[in-house]
UniProtKB/TrEMBL annotation:
Superkingdom per UniProt: Bacteria
First and last residues of every TPR repeat: 143-176
Ribonucleoprotein found in the keyword field: no
Signal among keywords: yes
Cleavable signal peptide: 1-20
Alphabetized Gene3D superfamilies for the sequence: Tetratricopeptide repeat domain
Keywords: Signal, TPR repeat
Protein name: Uncharacterized protein
UniProt source species: Leptospira ilyithenensis
UniProt-listed InterPro entries: TPR-like_helical_dom_sf, TPR_rpt
Length: 306
């Protein structure tokens, strides 16, 4: 009976990594992202032993060795990065997430702060997402993790994921500037103009770092046919924002559709600044009431909007 139970435990233990493909194990052998420590580093031998088991394909011993290293040398961010890399190459993302949760680092942990920054600096984006996702479940890290994940997915063009994480940020802090800015961008992309107005108006209150958000309010009002309301926001925009072509185009179109004889003088200094910086569209084309053909184009635009 004892022999049978021992054999059963051995089978269960030794088969915990059986599902890994040869491809995963070969990837471990050749992976170049594992960090080698100096021989004078206290964690050197522990790291070498863990790497040895991993490259040899002895995955159970490698797992135990990495866990032991992370516990004994918790302040070594390189050990944590190597343990992360081990599970990342094996595509066992949930296992390493649970281990990070178990570490339960404080929000001001220099180790995990360094880990997140190192992954950013070395462009290891997928591993960074794994760490941030795990940290989002650790008390104190939620807001930071949600914001970083939202920014990542926005940069990737994954708007549904970005929106989900920004919403979680706003649940914690309804006037979080970066989250409001991100949501305004997403709703503009999705052409949800009333939502753009809601988030944009919140930015009027919340914006401290980046005040160049008035384009979104112009654009939303333009698309909703609220031309006079859109023009009111022009006054609040900075000279820098007014010099952006996207802003100038909407400003121009608002005037085209709300004035019989639009006055281009307020736009000209900003248009000319854009031209000085390389914008190549001629004045007679950009302002379509400056010649007869342009006036006809304006009529067509107004007819199409009305």
């Amino acid at each position: 009976m004892f022999l049978k139970n021992t054999l059963l435990l051995f089978v269960l233990f030794s088969s915990s990594f059986c599902s890994y493909s040869v491809r995963n194990q070969e990837a471990l052998e050749s992976d170049q992202k594992f960090i080698k420590l100096s021989e004078t580093d206290p964690a050197f031998r522990c790291n070498q032993e863990s790497l040895h088991y991993a490259r040899k394909g002895d995955l159970n011993r490698a797992e135990l060795a990495w866990d032991g290293c992370a516990k004994e040398f918790f302040q070594s961010y390189q050990i944590h990065l190597n343990r992360l890399r081990f599970y990342y190459v094996l595509e066992e993302y949930e296992i390493i997430k649970r281990k990070i949760e178990s570490d339960s680092p404080a929000r001001n942990s220099p180790v995990y702060t360094k880990i997140v920054q190192e992954l950013y600096d070395t462009l290891r984006w997928e591993e960074r997402v794994i760490v941030l996702d795990a940290l989002s479940r650790v008390r104190g890290w939620e807001l930071y993790s949600y914001e970083e994940l939202a920014n990542y997915y926005l940069h990737q063009g994954n708007f549904p994921f970005a929106e989900s994480y920004y919403n979680q940020v706003l649940e914690i802090n309804p006037f979080h500037e970066d989250a409001l800015f991100g949501m305004t961008e997403i709703q503009t992309h999705n052409e949800k103009w009333y939502s753009v107005l809601d988030y944009g108006k919140s930015l009027v209150v919340a914006a401290k770092k980046n005040k160049d958000f008035h384009y979104f309010l112009l654009k939303a009002n333009y698309e909703l046919g609220r031309y006079a309301e859109g023009l009111k926001w022009v006054e609040n925009a900075s000279d820098k924002e007014k010099s952006q072509i996207s802003f100038l185009e909407v400003w121009r179109d608002l005037l085209l559709l709300s004035k019989d004889k639009p006055n281009w003088n307020p736009l000209l200094p900003y248009y000319r600044k854009a031209v000085a910086e390389g914008y190549a569209v001629p004045e007679s084309v950009f302002f379509p009431t400056l010649d007869a053909s342009g006036r006809e184009a304006r009529k067509a635009i107004r007819t199409g909007r009305e």
